[in-house]
Design goal:
heterodimer, A: mainly beta, five-stranded mixed beta sheet, four-stranded antiparallel beta sheet, B: mainly beta, seven-stranded mixed beta sheet, 11 strands, globular
């Protein structure tokens, strides 16, 4: 499975934008980039995913580099509730294989200061 | 609507005892997953069910671990002869079908083996 690399931790101030980077230099053409986050004492929750184009939803934006070897999750205005561990995960959508399972790394612990 | 629920939320047991952890997935979700999360780590895949059958149990650490989903809905993870190293948070997730859909996680069961 292609691997991802994320910083161990990042800090932000409330109501400021946050850019969470992820490197995935060995990504394949059929790998989608998924982001999940895990709030304290909760299970992970889906945030966003994309393949090549930048994506926006109500929670965040995903900016994908042109060569797809890196991506950035953007929280436009961080709130205290966004303090969590953020995981960048690659999922291969080719049929077959074990693309049903999520392979989590250690993620990035985001601290939001009031 | 109701999300994924897991019971109990906490379980403390003694070394050598047998435990059962229960997962109620979102109604209509055919795919169900178990993950295990140790302190400071991301979740690790244990087993995947598609309907009633275990499609992939490659993540189960040894034969003391077993999981069932007899009617294609509720699932039970069973651990025999528990060891202190089994202490972790056990997470259950479900998704509408299988490999591509977003996974919805429960809050987890924190298992402590004394």
């Amino acid at each position: 499975d292609a691997k991802t690399t994320q910083p161990n931790s990042m800090e932000s101030n409330e109501e400021e934008p946050v850019h969470l980077p992820c490197n995935h230099s060995t990504i394949s053409g059929t790998d989608y980039i998924h982001w999940y986050r895990q709030l304290p004492s909760q299970g992970p929750e889906y945030v966003i995913h994309g393949l090549t184009s930048n994506v926006n939803n109500r929670m965040a934006s995903l900016a994908i580099a042109e060569d797809r070897k890196s991506s950035t999750l953007i929280l436009h205005r961080a709130t205290l509730r966004d303090a969590a561990v953020y995981y960048c995960i690659l999922r291969d959508v080719k049929s077959g294989g074990s693309n049903y399972k999520l392979t989590f790394g250690k993620g990035t612990l985001l601290t939001v200061n009031p | 609507g109701a999300g994924v629920s897991q019971t109990p939320s906490n379980k403390v047991t003694e070394k050598g005892k047998y435990v059962e952890l229960r997962c109620d997935p979102i109604s209509g979700h055919t795919a169900l997953y178990w993950y295990r999360q140790s302190l400071g780590q991301g979740p690790e895949f244990l087993i995947y069910f598609q309907g009633t059958g275990a499609a992939d149990d490659s993540g189960l650490p040894n034969d003391r671990f077993f999981a069932v989903r007899p009617e294609g809905s509720v699932s039970t993870l069973k651990i025999q002869r528990t060891e202190r190293g089994d202490s972790a948070v056990y997470l259950c997730a479900s998704s509408l079908t299988d490999y591509y859909n977003e996974q919805f996680f429960g809050p987890g069961t924190r298992l402590t083996v004394l």
